[in-house]
Amino acid sequence: MSTSGAVLVVTGSFDPTADLVIEELTRRAVPVFRADTAWFPSRLTLAASLDGAGWTGTLTTDRRTLDLSSVRSVYYRRPTAPEFPNDMPEEARAVAAAEARRGFGGLLSALPCPWLPPPGRAADAEYKPLQLRVAAESGLSVPRTLITNDPAAARSFADKLGGPVIYKPFTPIRGTIDGTSMAVYANLLQPDDLPHPDIATTAHLFQESVPKAHEVRLTVVGSKMFAAEIHAGSEASRIDWRSDYDSLTYKTCTVPVDVAAGVRRMLDQLGLPFGAFDFIVTPSDEWRFLELNPNGQWGFVEQATGLPITAAICDYLEGINTA
User: Fold this and answer.
1) CA 251, CA 200: separation in Å to the nearest integer?
2) Which listed residue, 58, 136, 227, 283, has the most CB atoms within 10 A of its CB?
3) Dist CA 65 CA 254 (whole Å)
4) Phi, psi dihedral angles at 183 (to 5 degrees)
């Protein structure tokens, strides 16, 4: 089977969020070719040549073939690393992985079509120090923040604020300890909790604790914005709503004009067509920026509120109303 004018979806074999997009594109009769970088090289064959101005060739699985020259857009979600034979020597595996990233990955990045999101831009935007700076430059209100590995500096920061601070990891931390799934969420620390010797072991991020009426997940797709209030129903979720999804309730809301303008400036500066933003809304209705996830989850918001985020993503990938 050959596809023409297809959307290439690059993601892991299990991705319910990508499934929503694939199902909608299929409903619209838009061809879709799904592939995971883990399938390369054993389950995905690449053959491409440069003849003139662009690359031509194919990606082939045991069931389907994609004409690279006809790809209209790429939805880049959460691919996993290439897999190699278990008996391959470690040194050879390292070389093969690097060559796959630069060869296979490099070829995909050379496709002259829209990406949602562009992986290089998205990877840069994952750095919280960068996104916090860009958010402030874009006119968004950003909590006072400290990054340090100095326990004394952490205590001094809390003392200057005169109250508790929020600690949050730079990247999601999940794992299994003694057979139990564990995750590290944001934590509320009192000044007396600091200094702590563990701070010296690596970089830590601390922020002022901002009073909140609720939080907002703002999903931006091209020119479209979808905002949902998130109301916490437990003590844990009031600090970090990701820690207790079952307690949450949702409500659609309108984005203030100044916040919408700042968000657009931020995405323009970062070169991103998509972003999942988290804000605190204070009791006085001030929106305070927390973070941007350049490839964040949105399915739970759509399910809870009915906001048409899947349709907006498919419009973008299909080339409809992308301005």
Assistant:
1) 41
2) 227
3) 44
4) -145, 150
2: left (phi over 0), alpha (psi -120 to 50) or beta: beta
Angle (CA) 170-175-180 rounded to 5° is: 140
Rounded CA gap, 122 and 274, in Å?
Answer: 9
Domains of the chain and CATH, by start: 2-113 (no CATH), 123-141+211-318 (3.30.470.20), 145-208 (no CATH)
Q: For residue 8, how many C-alpha atoms fall within 13 Å in the half-sphere facing its CB?
A: 28
Q: Dump pLDDT digits (tens) for 196-248.
A: 999 999 999 999 999 999 999 999 999 999 999 999 888 888 888 888 888 89
Strand order of the β-sheet with 274-281 is 249-252, 224-231, 214-221, 274-281, 287-293
d(CA 296, CA 319): 21
**CA–CA gap between residue 275 and residue 270 (Å, rounded):** 10
Helical ranges in the chain per DSSP H: 16-27, 90-100, 106-109, 119-125, 128-137, 151-161, 235-239, 257-270, 299-305, 309-318
Look at residues 293, 208, 305 and name the one whose alpha carbon lies nearest to residue 248: 305
Decide: 56 and 49 in contact? Cβ < 8 Å: yes
Contacts of 138 (CB under 8 A, 6+ apart): 262, 263, 265, 266, 269
In this structure, the chain runs to a length of: 323
Segment 109-151, tens digit of pLDDT: 999 999 999 999 999 999 999 999 999 999 999 999 999 999 9
Tokens of 239: 């600090």
Q: What is the pTM of this model?
A: 0.90
